[in-house]
Amino acid sequence: xxxxxxxxxxxxxxxxxxxxxxxxxxxxxxxxxxxxxxxxxxxxxxxxxxxxxxxxxxxxxxxxxxxxxxxxxxxxxxxxxxxxxxxxxxxxxxxxxxxxxxxxxxxxxxxxxxxxxxxxxxxxxxxxxxxxxxxxxxxxxxxxxxxxxxxxxxxxxxxxxxxxxxxxxxxxxxxxxxxxxxxxxxxxxxxxxxxxxxxxxxxxxxxxxxxxxxxxxxxxxxxxxxxxxxxxxxxxxxxxxxxxxxxxxxxxxxxxxxxxxxxxxxxxxxxxxxxxxxxxxxxxxxxxxxxxxxxxxxxxxxxxxxxxxxxxxxxxxxxxxxxxxxxxxxxxxxxxxxxxxxxxx
Length: 345
Ligand SMILES: O=C(O)CCC(=O)C(=O)O
Fold this sequence. Notes:
CATH superfamily: q2cbj1_9rhob like domain
Structural class: alpha+beta
Helix content: 10-25%
Shape: globular
Distance between the termini: 39 Å
Number of domains: 1
Number of strands: 13
CATH architecture: Sandwich
Bound molecules: 2-oxoglutaric acid
Radius of gyration: 22 Å
Mean pLDDT: 93
CATH class: Mainly Beta
Low-confidence stretches: none
């Protein structure tokens, strides 16, 4: 008899038996090798995916956006010497994080929602090798969770080692997300190259304690290795492997783009169905909308309803819903049947 979980459509993915390696993988141009590295070490570095011109164009676009966000007082940045904001929370775990205009170059700046900030970033998120490794790691349907540019400058402290799926309080047999970091210039240890503890993707999660300086630190005494890369290299890492941004002591900026893809049932970091401008929505094809989380795969997770009778945003992969407001006799509001027609059965 066929086991229920093996029936078509139930997303049964057999677990892979892998030999865990506690060493950094070498950069590779071979996608199959990258898949093996990801399985065995929790990360993989790919080389040769981009021309120098492509890297330069992405770098210029990311840096121009970052500069204008600073100029226009809407930058998400950190300057550790500022300490905690008197009233507001931190951006991620970065001490001295602020939203506004930095009065001097911040040690950390993140440009979020890149998909709203240039067609080239959406095209980049569709790179076949990125999608192949996302599917390989996650093992089922997924969509984009996060698209950011990062600029790290001298004085940036090391980020606390963490797992990207740290919100889960239990171990998972597969990762819920695949993260990648593309180097848009040199990506050396002295510039804060991402640090990894290879082989930690098969658990347990790091434990944390408050250090003498009042900052959170990892209890385990582990060796973390920098993923040093050339411009255009990409490090892919699954959401269970321990990692964190390294400290920068260099006058040369570290510039990178990060994408996270997550399993279709995971709450994404960036809620694109709620956040992308109408103008962009209308330019996207169905494949792109699916990548941004508009597709409903199974069990109705992520179902949308029109926000007003004119709303054009729709799910893909499930029945379209009509606009239905609060209906009370005499409140003057009405529902709008689909296509203006009521089906009677
Ligand atoms: O910037 C990096 O090197 C790593 C970033 C990261 O892991 C994070 O922000 O969670």
